Amino acid sequence: LAEIYGNIFTVRLGKDTFVILCGHKMMKEALVTQAENFVDRPYNAIADRFYTEPGAGLFMSNGDKWKKQRRFALSTLRNFGLGKSMLEQSICEEIRHLQEEIEREKGKPFSPAGLFNSAVSNIVCQLVMGKRFDYSDHNFQIMLKCLSEAILLEGNIWGQLYQAFPKLMYHLPGPHNKMFSNYTVIHKFLAEEIEKHKKDLDPSNPRDYIDTFLIEMEKQKDSDLGFTETNLA
């Protein structure tokens, strides 16, 4: 197409308009020289349906809100061990639990994918929630299953069709609706953890990312920098 229309051309997909850049010089101009002008994320129909406020979440926000959220997230996660030796202790402890689960199979063939998924998720949970979940925890496993299914659905043809034709797909039956019901389960799981943190929150002694976010949320309650429960969950 670039040979016909040049290094900059437009393509329409459903309701969306895409500007295509071709060639190293053109891409460097847009993504390096004028990076600030092209840093924002495109509209996401799936996120727009799920989140109750526009541009919510660390991964969907733009501009000053995104910069503040990103800076806060990186700083807080580093304080709780990200990129430091203290995180290695959590990883080693999780490996011990993983090894115990593998040994229970007594040398029989099995798929380790679920165990590895649980182990990696537990490392994240220790940073965000200050705790790990047992591999047999029903709610934890349901949440992981829903997350895997939702990511798979969002990346396949049904997710792409919803992104291209959201108003039409909203009214049609299909696997894409399972994606939203899965995200609802995940949101409920996270919301319950947030409520537990609220009950025994000590502003002078934050235990994890959720505690720190709740404390910052109180400080920034009159700002529009995205410190809300919607963004946290």
Automatic annotation (TrEMBL):
Q: What is this protein called?
A: Cytochrome P450, family 2, subfamily J, polypeptide 2
Any GO BP annotation: organic acid metabolic process
- UniProt cross-references to Gene3D superfamilies, sorted A to Z: Cytochrome P450
Q: Can you name one GO molecular function term for this protein?
A: iron ion binding
- Keywords, in A-Z order: Endoplasmic reticulum, Heme, Iron, Membrane, Metal-binding, Microsome, Monooxygenase, Oxidoreductase
A Pfam match is p450
Q: Which family does it belong to?
A: Belongs to the cytochrome P450 family.
The compartments listed are:
Endoplasmic reticulum membrane; Microsome membrane
Tell me yes or no: is Membrane among this UniProt entry's keywords: yes
- Species classification: Eukaryota, Metazoa, Chordata, Craniata, Vertebrata
